[in-house]
Design brief:
Pfam families: CUB. This is CUB domain-containing protein. It comes from Poecilia mexicana. Keywords: Disulfide bond. By secondary structure, the chain is mostly beta strands. The chain has one domain: Jelly Rolls, CATH 2.60.120. It is built from no helices and eleven strands. The strands form three sheets. The protein has a five-stranded mixed beta sheet with strand order 3-5-10-7-8, with no helix packed on it. Strands 4-11-6-9 form a four-stranded antiparallel beta sheet, with no helix packed on it. Strands 1-2 form a two-stranded antiparallel ribbon. Strand 7 and strand 8 form a beta hairpin. It starts with about 25 loop residues before the first strand and ends in a 15-residue tail after the last strand. The structure holds calcium ion. The site of calcium ion has 8 residues, from loops.
Length: about 180
């Protein structure tokens, strides 16, 4: 990482090259829908945004699990290979909440940071899991204003094979 670009909050201004990739502290194997993925977990990452080209991983808001700093802007771009879709899960989510998420928010977009907006989230409710519709790249954009913070968020993602529409689950029936 290029230290000269990193400010006191351990962050790099969004959109610049050299954004730090979160440190990978723990790696283990998990069984996920019958396939083995190398799953990387990231804890206490101080990074603010980055271009994450991996099949799976996790990232968190700056300073997590402590409160995120004010006046942050971080953009994470999650990229996988063509033919995959990105599946995003929220493990923890706590931002300042207001009705329009004007103060602090996390936005999800399909594709690059100029892609179509999936949703803007704030407050203490865990956003629903999301699977990309149009491709193998998803961008998450976090912004905090000058006052009132929260504990931040922890996001986990996995690339899944694009095999057509998602499976439907019929309640009360178990597929064997
Ligand atoms: Ca705020």
């Amino acid at each position: 990482m290029n230290q000269s670009r990193v400010n006191s909050a351990g962050c790099v201004p969004a959109g610049q090259e050299g954004s730090p990739v979160p440190r990978l502290l723990v790696e283990n194997l998990i069984n996920y829908t019958g396939e083995i993925f190398l799953k990387s977990f990231c804890f206490n990452c101080s990074g603010c945004g980055g271009d994450l080209v991996m099949q799976s991983g996790a990232f968190n808001s700056p300073n997590y699990p402590d409160a995120y700093p004010p006046n942050m802007e971080c953009v994470w771009t999650l990229r996988s290979s063509p033919g995959n879709r990105m599946q995003i899960s929220f493990i923890m989510f706590h931002l300042q909440g207001d009705s329009d998420c004007q103060n602090d928010y996390l936005e999800i977009r399909e594709g690059s940071s100029a892609g179509s907006l999936v949703g803007r989230f704030c407050g203490a409710s865990l956003p629903s899991n999301y699977t990309s519709v149009t491709g193998s790249t998803v961008t998450l954009h976090f912004k905090s204003d000058s006052a009132v913070g929260g504990r931040g968020f922890l996001v986990d993602w996995t690339a899944v094979k694009d095999s057509g529409p998602p499976p439907t689950i019929t309640p009360g029936k178990t597929k064997r």
